[in-house]
Amino acid sequence: MKMQNLHEAMLDMLKDTYDAEHQITKALPKMIEAAKNRELKKAFETHLRQTEEQIRMVERMFETLGEKPSRKKCDGMAGLIKEGEHVIEEGGDPDVVDAALIAAAQKVEHYEISAYGTLRTWANTMDHRDVALLFDQLNRQEEETDRLLTRIAESRVNQKAE
Questions:
Q1: Is the pTM of this model over 0.90?
Q2: Hey, where are the domains in the chain?
Q3: How high is the pLDDT of residue 1?
């Protein structure tokens, strides 16, 4: 579909992020199982529950915009998830695997932060204030998860991996 205006571009990206969130819910259980550090495992479990709620928030955004929720394959997220799967498949020292899982998860978070930040800006530009507030909330959640993963990595996982 050719995008003719910013509203269409926003809907296209929203479909992409909706698919990305669904992909994440499929990937996180594998990461939870592969993680050995209890704090990391707990962070992944929390993020899974949060991602399920984020899917519902995105569905509300579609409804607010008068659209039916639909997905467009997010190739970017598929690639990032594949990188995380390689970490799990390759295995190795559990502490090193945990450090690599954090790196893979942070790539996912940064992708989401970028997408939700852009969507928030576009929604504000088009005066979709309610939707912009939801995008802002999603963006803040992703940033918080990124900070948590950094704290886990810096406080113990990276030192053990060394």
A1: yes
A2: 6-161
A3: 65
Contact 40, 152 (CB under 8 A): yes
Candidates 109, 135, 106, 99; CA nearest to 120 is: 135
pLDDT at 2: 86
Q: Look up residue 140 and give its amino acid.
A: R
Neighbours of 33 (CB within 10 A): 10
Q: Give the DSSP letter string of 47-84.
A: HHHHHHHHHHHHHHHHHHTT--------HHHHHHHHHH
Domain 6-161: which CATH class?
mainly alpha
Q: Please give the distance of CA 20 from its chain centroid, rounded to a whole number.
A: 7
- Measured between alpha carbons, how far is 7 from 16 in angstroms, rounded to an integer? 14
What residues in the chain have per-residue pLDDT under 70? Answer: 1
pLDDT above 90 covers a percentage of the chain that reads: 98
Burial tier of 39 (Cβ tally within 10 Å: 0-12, 13-18, 19+): middle
